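User: I've been trying to design a sequence by hand for this structure and keep getting stuck. Would you show me what you'd pick, starting by listing the structure so we're on the same page?

Assistant: Good idea, let's start from the same input. This is the structure you sent:
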């Protein structure tokens, strides 16, 4: 991988998932059971995470070819490699959790369409596809490609990968909280 930051953020994603999947195994709860009527099940939450990774990947398919010439031109300029937790910031400012846009909402009756292991596999597949998309782009270039996301303060590719890790940990923490932190 041409970016040590992107590589480390993907490793962070993988290690967080490994820990969380171990928690799920120890918990022994049905992955489709909602902890509260208005809260997503573990399976629905993982599907939401998969949709998020898929959205970033699909946007990148069209966005990178447009932005690469500009990013190469600007590659000698400084860029950020870290981003703060926008979910925590939003919660503190608005006194409520951030709502997922309709594109990232898990469909109804998800448990009838997929086994839980299928959702885990979909999340892994989407992550691998995204990793393959960014793996061979120079770090100085990925630092100059900024996504048009005002809520996240227009993160570059490096920050976006870290934001995926932050987002996943945010949901893992919520799932632990809603499932009674029974570990």
């Amino acid at each position: 991988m041409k970016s040590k930051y992107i590589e480390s953020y993907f490793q962070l994603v993988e290690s967080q998932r490994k820990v969380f999947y171990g928690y799920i195994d120890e918990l022994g709860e049905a992955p489709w059971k909602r902890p509260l009527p208005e809260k997503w099940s573990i399976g629905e939450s993982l599907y939401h995470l998969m949709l998020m990774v898929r959205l970033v990947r699909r946007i990148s398919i069209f966005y990178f070819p447009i932005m690469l010439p500009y990013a190469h031109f600007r590659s000698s300029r400084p860029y950020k490699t870290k981003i703060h937790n926008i979910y925590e910031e939003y919660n503190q400012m608005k006194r409520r959790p951030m709502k997922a846009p309709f594109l990232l909402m898990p469909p109804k009756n998800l448990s009838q369409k997929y086994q839980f292991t299928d959702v885990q596999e979909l999340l892994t597949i989407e992550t691998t596809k995204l990793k393959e998309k960014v793996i061979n782009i120079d770090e100085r270039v990925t630092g100059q490609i900024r996504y048009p996301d005002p809520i996240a303060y227009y993160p570059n590719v490096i920050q976006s990968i870290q934001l995926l890790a932050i987002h996943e940990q945010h949901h893992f923490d919520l799932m632990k909280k809603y499932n009674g932190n029974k570990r």
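That's my pick for every position. To get oriented when you compare it with your attempt: The mean pLDDT is 94. Residues 121 and 127 are 10 Å apart (CA to CA).
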